Amino acid sequence: MKTENQRAWFFVLPVLLLVAFNALVPIMTVVNYSVQETFGNNVFFWQGLDWFEQILRSDRFHAALGRQFLFTFLILIIEVPLGIIIALSMPKKGMWVPVCLVLMALPMLIPWNVVGAMWNIFTLPKIGLLGYLMNDVLGVNYDMTQDPLAAWITIIVMDVWHWTSLVVLLAYAGLVSIPDAYYQAAKIDGASPWKVFRYIQLPKMKRY
Amino acid sequence: MAKITLSNLRHSYMPNPSGPDDYALKSIDLDWEDGGAYALLGPSGCGKSTLLNIISGLLVPSEGRILFDGRDVTDLPPDQRNIAQVFQFPVIYDTMTVRDNLAFPLRNRGVDEGRIAGRVAEIAAMLDVEAMLDVRAAHLSPDNKQKISMGRGLVRDDVNVVMFDEPLTVIDPHLKWKLRSKLKELHQRVRATMIYVTHDQTEALTFADQVVVMQDGEVVQIGTPVELFERPQHTFVGHFIGSPGMNILPASEDGGRIVFEGQTVPVEGAVTGTGGMTQLGIRPEFVTLADTGLPARVRKVSDVGRHAVVETVVGDTPVKAVVDHAEVEQGAEVHLAFRQDQTRLYRDGWLSTEASQ
Question: The whole model's pTM is what?
Fold first, then answer.
């Protein structure tokens, strides 16, 4: 006979406390600030939903949100197909597998704030390696601090560099999990390489 | 449909095989008659899947030729050989419906949609899957998935041979029987050559008209289930087929007599050949407990329902007997009688007595 008791809660308690202090309390503080105004000295005045109204009516906010969506759309449309193509062309067995996997994982291991700092210096005209190369060696006018188009291209390239590996690894995991029998059956069924991709490889990759 | 001839086939997975041990298949010469139901039986690792993949074209043999109706297809890729293969684990295209799965091999070959619809309906009726034609294949149970992968093989009416590579491995035991009889029924209806690979003797013996027994990359015996049971050409066949398998007993030749544990044992017919390692072979079904004969001690009696298996030792050699009712108990001293026309001599593993007249 199993006796029911509530002892399990004690095992969850430390985690609950931890989450409360490093997530729940800070978040609720921010929520509290969102309905207050202050002029310093830790003195707060009730402001109600004014901040929210201002934000929702702000043209600058709308523009930023639009740019965010455009950015997300652009990087996804580049990273997903690129990642799949890289995963498809990676070796399935042999000594090159670990080499490829480690190379792929490297950019993802760098924290995102470091990625920003790194790329900022990397692309600065005159100082950064890329900035110097573009302006002073290749003679292409490139200054992401002044030119919006250059800035767009820079952050997109940066994101592609940072996150394409994630797509590669997920797609690769799906690909190597396909048993040989599937490819053999497709061969016997007379499927073209495109159909193998469309009906065997793509569905398996989607599952991850 | 076609007759399949394998001639001097050898295959090694190594680039430079040096000895016979490096070969997964050692010299295979076989004819598969058009429309036959064959089973390829042998323990894991005996080369049966290798042989299957060579016939289907997924593997190119190191040496030898494969002929379909006399036409050399050794270098043809699988899709040009018009074969079908059903794998151990059901291979289906998850994202397609059952209907599209069945139509897939035809669409890839550019058959017109009207004919495809007809063929798919016909095959679906044969497999009893009409009700699920519009279901996404991913949602099917394993046995239905396996039916669909069989269906994809049968949907083409020009298949030379349908091959099954241990197709019932993932099927629940109570459905195995159903699928097996379905297969037998399908064979009778479509009359295509079928090759069924398995390590399960029940599956092989119930499905096939002819069973090819393989061991260590070699064909040991080809025969009907009855032939394999009654006159195994090799001790391996005797041991592998039957439950329990044949008693294989160390014996020696003394003049014309065969001696086992100091006693002369009469065998079925004239002994052929000389030398080598000699063994007696007799199926437990033909060993009886008698008043006179080889003295033995009963070690264990297992009642398996229809009959009982009596495990005895003669000297140090274990001998099994299958009897209707076990009236003996463990430890009892008994005598064993071997039915003479079922007692055979094997020399280095191969049958070395002539059949009794």
Answer: 0.74
